[in-house]
């Protein structure tokens, strides 16, 4: 059986805990399509087209914190290969995924710190530093094709993330390579996600509400759906687009931009019958990197990425929830 074992979390799905935890999940959620931006215009010789494309990226990053990109440079062939290899990996027995040190021993299932259902994520994942993908010990020979696909995907998504970060930095008067030195293979991550069918409750989180603790995230998801984000104080469901990648702003970019760009809360809801797959690239700096504001007066005090991560871990351990940027307000 490829699904993770359920017994360790059984108590979260019983009695009053279930009723208490599902209040938010019962809300009616409308489906919307995220802003769609054709990146071909960024490479156009027509200045007006380039300026218009930059304006679309900036507006979406400020108003939504999320957008979709077409002509992004990641081939459908590579995305298809990655999806096939990812499914083959997750079909392994739970014991092998959890104990065989696959992908740098980065396997995760559920939320060990959860004390209630609204602190729990019904999902499994491998969270791999890019620098570890090519290590001989990262993948056995059986998964050589997976390692190759991951390395190529990480390379193309890294180029895309740096290009978009450059556009957003230049819009605020900073150099386009503002984040190049602090974000490298040793600091950025690729995360492979699987959301198994959850027969116990359709209101269970596949991934609990959160913001991303990075500069920028690029996501490729299948067509099952389930991704939702917070917009104008309401949850909206993101309509899948088979031709697009999803981009979202992370906490560090919101802090650096002085709240010009928005790191928006989002979540994944489970499906009772169908599994969902996605792969995400995270543009992260080193732990020693200082996140300062691009302009004064600053909304946030200066902090290092390491300090930010430790504070998030502390909050989750103590309360079950991430607090994030509000901890660093001046």
From TrEMBL:
It is an enzyme of class 1 (oxidoreductase). It comes from the Eukaryota. Residues 184-285 form the Fe2OG dioxygenase domain. It catalyses: gibberellin A1 + 2-oxoglutarate + O2 = gibberellin A8 + succinate + CO2. PROSITE patterns: FE2OG_OXY. GO terms for biological process: gibberellin metabolic process. One of its GO terms (molecular function) is 2-oxoglutarate-dependent dioxygenase activity. Keywords: Dioxygenase, Iron, Metal-binding, Oxidoreductase. Its EC number is 1.14.11.13. Pfam families: 2OG-FeII_Oxy (PF03171), DIOX_N (PF14226). Its cofactor is L-ascorbate. Coiled coil: none annotated. The keyword Oxidoreductase applies. PANTHER family: 2-OXOGLUTARATE (2OG) AND FE(II)-DEPENDENT OXYGENASE SUPERFAMILY PROTEIN-RELATED (PTHR47990). Belongs to the iron/ascorbate-dependent oxidoreductase family. GA2OX subfamily. This is gibberellin 2beta-dioxygenase.
């Amino acid at each position: 059986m490829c699904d993770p074992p359920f017994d360790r979390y059984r108590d979260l799905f019983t009695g009053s805990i279930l009723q208490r935890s599902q209040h938010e999940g019962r809300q009616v959620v409308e489906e919307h399509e995220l802003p769609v931006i054709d990146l071909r215009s960024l490479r156009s010789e027509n200045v007006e087209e380039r300026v218009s494309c930059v304006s679309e990226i900036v507006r979406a990053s400020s108003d939504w914190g999320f957008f979709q990109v077409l002509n992004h440079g990641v081939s459908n062939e590579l995305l298809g290969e990655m999806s096939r290899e990812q499914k083959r990996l997750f079909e392994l027995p739970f014991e092998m995924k959890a104990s065989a040190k696959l992908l740098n021993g980065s396997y995760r299932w559920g939320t060990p710190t959860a004390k209630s259902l609204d602190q729990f994520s019904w999902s499994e994942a491998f969270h791999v530093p890019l620098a570890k993908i090519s290590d001989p010990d990262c993948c056995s020979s059986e998964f050589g094709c997976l390692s190759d696909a991951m390395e190529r995907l990480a390379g193309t998504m890294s180029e895309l993330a740096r290009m978009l970060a450059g556009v957003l930095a230049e819009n605020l008067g900073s150099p386009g390579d503002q984040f190049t030195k602090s974000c490298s293979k040793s600091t950025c991550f690729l995360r492979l996600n699987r959301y198994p069918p959850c027969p116990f409750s359709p209101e269970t989180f596949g991934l609990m509400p959160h913001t991303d603790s990075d500069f920028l995230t690029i996501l490729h998801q299948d067509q099952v759906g389930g991704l939702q984000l917070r917009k104008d104080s309401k949850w909206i469901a993101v309509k899948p687009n088979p031709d697009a990648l999803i981009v979202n702003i992370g906490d560090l970019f919101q802090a650096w931009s002085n709240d010009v760009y928005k790191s928006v809360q989002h979540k994944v809801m489970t499906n009772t019958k169908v599994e969902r797959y996605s792969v995400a690239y995270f543009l992260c700096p080193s732990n020693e990197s200082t996140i300062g504001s691009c302009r004064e007066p600053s909304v946030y005090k200066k902090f290092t990425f390491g300090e930010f991560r430790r504070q998030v871990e502390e909050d989750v351990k103590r309360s079950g929830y991430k607090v994030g940027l509000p901890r660093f307000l001046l």
